[in-house]
Amino acid sequence: MSTAEAASPHEVGNVARLAIAQALAGANATIVYATGAIVGNTLAPDKALATLPISIFVVGMAACTLPAGAIARRHGRRAAFLAGTGCGVLVGLLAALAVVLGSFLLFCLATFFGGAYAAVVLSFRFAAADGVAPERRPRALSLVMAGGIFAGVIGPQIVTYTMDLWPPYLFAATFLAQAGVAALCALILAGIRLPRPTAAEVAGGRPLSVIARQPRFVVAVTCGVVSYLLMNFLMTAAPLAMRLCGLSQEAANLGLQWHVIAMYAPSFFTGRLITRFGAPRVMAAGLVLTGAAAVAGLLGQEVAHFWWSLTMLGLGWNFGFVGASAMVLECHRPEERTRVQSLNDFIVFGVMAVGSFASGGVLTAYGWDTVLWVSFGPLVLAVAALAAGAASRRRVREISVPSS
Asked: For the stretch 209-231, what's the b/e string if a residue is b when 16 or more beta carbons lie within 10 angstroms of its beta carbon?
């Protein structure tokens, strides 16, 4: 590979640090998802509110994406990263205190800060892509996402080995360990070297209303929303559903572990697939896998059914969300990147919050099978958006090719 084609040591170092930070910070979300509904079921005044803490987590993600983008645009991405890890330390401390005090409201506040941390973590993928040449962006994005594989191991193992260390306060020690992992992540990110925002980037470029009307942006956001919405909708309910079916917490932890590994393991090659086949085809494969996950869950309620469903759900999320993220990179100019990327994540997490709120109520009122059946509605919408996008691209090509 020529010098012009090869990534510089500076670029490699940034991607490596972001991948390690993704592994550490990703454990935050894994721990919240593994414990949130169970702690909520214990502390909530009404059992129908059991998944409210996870929904508040998603609200925190949605509410903090635009402020995080504003911090990155004005003060640089590293400032936003360190603010996020500060929230990560806070969520662990507040959640542990909530368990000790038996306070449901305090636990919900803790998960809101956890969502703020997760919102910043999801910008790691764009930071990696922005720091390399255009032809390497899909690979840089997917390699950082691959760090989540280790999050899939770190998070559930922290839960398994710490949940009973502080009797009778289930998970209190887990949340303290979570705070420690967030502090370690801050140390990793403190050494990252990213360029300061330019005057053009601070100015912001075109109005967001103009950018958001691009057909490619609409398709990317729709597929990103559906991929993340359904992943969250099903994963939020799955651990509690397993407990309600009489399955063990250890089985739920392992199911969640394989789910998170499946979410991130394909990232080692998703970038290459996007480069070779294009983002739309990769997103389509993700939607098919998500549909297969719902079908697997409908086949039964034994441990194997939950594990197969969660694993395919993770694979579907990876193809759908990474593909959608790569397409977003094609929709903005360099000076518009933080605003457009933040808008994309705001829309994704804002809609996802609705699904998260609905998940617990649907599970409690109608059962796990209904949760699975409901997921087919958004899938149809995403498939329709992809088909419309493909038709639009064909029309553009036909117009651009001169007649003979």
From this structure: eebeeeebbbbbbbbbbbbbbbb
pLDDT digit string (tens) for 288-313?
999 999 999 999 989 999 999 999 99
Average pLDDT across the chain, whole number: 85
CA gap 111, 17 in Å, rounded: 25
How would DSSP label each residue in 45-105?
Answer: SSGGGTTHHHHHHHHHHHHHHHHHHHHHHHH-HHHHHHHHHHHHHHHHHHHHHHHHHT-HH
CB atoms within 10 A of CB 292: 16
145 in Cβ contact with 267 (< 8 Å): yes
Angle, vertex CA 249, rays to CA 286 and CA 39, nearest 5: 90
State the pLDDT at residue 196.
66
Residue 334: cis peptide before it, omega within 30 degrees of 0 = no
Q: How many CB atoms lie within 10 A of CB 288?
A: 17
Which structure tokens are listed for 361? 């109520």
Task: State CA 178 to chain mean position distance.
Answer: 18
The confidence score (pLDDT) of residue 195 equals 65
**Residue pair 223/347 in contact by the 8 Å Cβ criterion:** no
Distance (Å) of CA 303 to CA 32, 182, 264, 307, 308: 21, 31, 22, 6, 9
